[in-house]
Amino acid sequence: MTKTVKTVGVVGAGRMGTPIIGHLVRKGFATRACDLNAARASAVNELGAQWAASPESLAAACDAILVCVGFDREVQELLAKGGPLRKAKPGTIVAILSTVHPKTVQNLAKECESAGPHVVDSTVCRGGEAADSGTLLSFVGGDKGVVERLTPVLSAYSSDVVHTGGVGTAQVAKAVNNLILWACLVADHEGLALARRYGADVEALRRALLLSSCANGPLEKWGMQTMAWADDDMAIVAEMAADAGIALPQAEVNREICRSLKPRRYKLDQYGR
Question: What are phi and psi of 138, to 5 degrees?
Fold first, then answer.
């Protein structure tokens, strides 16, 4: 008999993890959370979740665990041999929401096969605003039966859940999303900077372009992207491309542009000077 997920743990109570915790509680899941920053305990408790003293204590009590940490290294430490999440009960689903290399997830899933937990990847798109409103897009990669068990959890904070295939494919989907996202943001800056130089009403043009064939997410949310993770996102894309033996010249150029764009984003009068 397939075990229904009733208790969910969240490792990482940051910008994305915190609203996800709130949605899980509101959907009726018994929710536990932990973070390296103990100061976040009060916010977690206010949402109705239980603060866990450590990932080990969280892992022992949960049917599913969502990993919302920032970097590849942190994910590997949590699931390495002897790591805290290896102590999860047999059959526990460990879903990696963090954006990491697909091989990281695949290797960890293979290493954990004999230990008990089922490792899948479940990346999220649409950003912080969607996390707040519970309208994230979740890509999920893993065994069909495991994904079916996890889907009610993902649906607590996602308006769309897409099973992308085997373990690691959700990371591939997120990398492709990010590659196109940052390319669009660069193109939006170049187009609107050019329009500004020629005296066009930039805001009126932006709204009109959203009705055209060039409509894109960054243009719709113009002025809102922080670009905090642009270089990390594109570093993963570059590593994946190198591993696959494929040249992505536009992605390489956009990565360099994003580095210079980040400190002066949306300042169209400065773009191209």
Answer: -110, 120
Give alpha helix (H) positions in the chain. Answer: 17-26, 41-46, 55-61, 72-79, 102-112, 127-133, 144-155, 169-197, 202-209, 217-220, 230-244, 249-261
Strand 50-51 vs strand 64-67: parallel, antiparallel, or unpaired? unpaired
Q: Which of 189, 171, 212 lies closest to 270, judged by CA?
A: 189
Domains of the chain from N-terminus onward: 7-166 (3.40.50.720), 172-264 (1.10.1040.10)
Based on the number of CB atoms within 10 Å of its own CB, is 204 exposed (0-12), middle (13-18) or buried (19 or more)? exposed
Give the pair of three-digit tokens for residue 179: 């590659």
Taking the complete model, does pTM exceed 0.85, yes or no? yes
pLDDT in tens, 239-267: 999 999 999 999 999 999 999 999 999 99
- Asked whether the beta carbons of 85 and 94 are under 8 A apart, the reply is yes
At 75-119, the pLDDT tens digits run 999 999 889 999 898 899 999 999 999 999 999 999 998 777 999
